[in-house]
Design brief:
Layout (H helix, E strand, L loop, with lengths): L1 H25 L1 H25 L2 H5 L2 H5 L5 E9 L6 E9 L2 E9 L4 E8 L35 E7 L5 E7 L16 E5 L16 E6 L1 E2 L1
Antiparallel strand pairs: 1-2, 1-8, 1-9, 2-3, 3-6, 4-5, 4-7, 7-8
The protein binds copper (II) ion.
Length: 219
Amino acid sequence: MKRTLILACLACAIAIVGLTGVALATSPAPEREAEASAATPAAQAAPAAPEAAPAPKRSKQPAPAATKPDVRRAVAILEARSGSKLSGRALFTEHGGKITLRLDVQGIAPGLHAAHLHEKGDCGAPDAASSGPHWNPSGEAHGKMGTAPFHHGDIGNIIVDSGGKGTLVMTTDLWTLGGPEKTNILGKAVIVHANQDDFKTQPTGNAGGRIGCGVIKME
Ligand SMILES: [Cu+2]
């Protein structure tokens, strides 16, 4: 009996050792699986990296502009002259053979103020006299845009409200951005005057001092 028990116990011990061996042998497997599963998210994250990197998208930003090759813009930032507190901007958008001007001013007296294109893109003088006379490539008398005779720089009057702000919008096919000399407004000056344009007095429209000046440049 004792031998039988001893043999049985030996058999048990062998079995236990065997099972432990199996357990030990199998235990690294979950670790490998864990490693493998840990590697999977890393592998998934890898393809996400190019999406997260914004640089390629930024480099493609000119593409939207390329989708509208027929629209070009120029701008003149207006600065105060003749002791005024004017600030403003003239935005020129060229499309379909025409240019639309949006002129915004602020900081000046309510009422009508003349606006013109002057022939020299030079706002250096304190009174903006450096911008020269009205731009007049057709050699006509001063007047009102669209009603001959008129200078091609005769924009008109901008209406300024009680808060000192005003906006003028106009469209013309007489101007271009970089076209023939008689139509090209690049490098010309946008001038806003202290008074309104009477559309009659030669050659200035009796518009008074030059209180704002900006040179037209491609945006
Ligand atoms: Cu003027």
